[in-house]
Amino acid sequence: MTDLLGINHLTLATTDLDRLVAYYTELLGAALAFERAATASDPRIAAIDVGGNDHLMVFETATAPATGPDPLLGAGWGLRVATHARLREVRERILDAGWPVGEIETLPAQWTMTAHDPDGRPGSGPGPAPSPGNAGGQGPADAREAPERHPR
User: Fold this and answer.
1) Is residue 97 predicted with pLDDT exceeding 70?
2) What is this structure's pTM?
3) What is the pLDDT of residues 20-50, one digit of tens each?
4) β-strands 54-60, 9-14: how paired?
5) CA atoms of 97 and 100, how far apart (whole Å)
6) Which pLDDT does position 43 carry in this prediction?
7) H or E element that contains 90
8) For residue 29, what are the CA distances in angstroms to 5, 21, 147, 151?
9) What gap in Å lies between CA 55 and CA 150, rounded to an integer?
10) What is the largest distance, in Å, between two alpha-carbon atoms of the chain?
């Protein structure tokens, strides 16, 4: 048996902490857990609670973070929401705010979409396969409702 319980946090760098915190809290509905001012030896940081005891630890830097294509062709990280309907709502909020977001796709093991945060970092995520009684995926959607029929 493993002693690991999950991921405590994922650390992100940004040149604009306020903008990134606003994106995740105001647009995506995460909660600001804490913020710490910069000191002579440490950068300004914020911890964003994204649910399930998971956090984004964001630190402000003068150097822009790398956001180019990753060498694994799209490997990355993702956030979860409760249902497919919630995923659609989140997608509409992102679009209404003028941020880029992809279509919701049905993959063999999940529903997924890719959105880019204000620094251009892509995010999406894995989850259970869409099936009768489970419209599918975690990150961004973990739906526990009957699947809806979507035209392809």
Assistant:
1) yes
2) 0.69
3) 999 999 988 999 999 999 999 999 999 999 9
4) parallel
5) 9
6) 93
7) helix 84-96
8) 24, 11, 24, 29
9) 32
10) 56
Between strands 31-36 and 45-51, the pairing is antiparallel
Amino acid at 20: L
The vertex-30 CA angle with 33 and 49, nearest 5°, equals 35
pLDDT number for residue 72: 58
Amino acid, res. 68: G
> Distance between CA atoms of 85 and 63, rounded to whole angstroms?
38
Question: CA-to-CA distance for 89 and 83, rounded, in angstroms?
Answer: 10
Token pair listed for 119: 């620094």
The CB-side HSE value for 143 (13 A sphere, CA atoms) comes to 26
Strand partners, 78: none
Which candidate, 10, 2, 8, 86, places its Cα nearest to that of 52? 8
∠ CA 130-124-112, rounded to 5°: 25
DSSP state, residue 50? E
Q: Please tell me the distance from the alpha carbon of residue 113 to that of residue 99, in angstroms, as a whole number.
A: 13
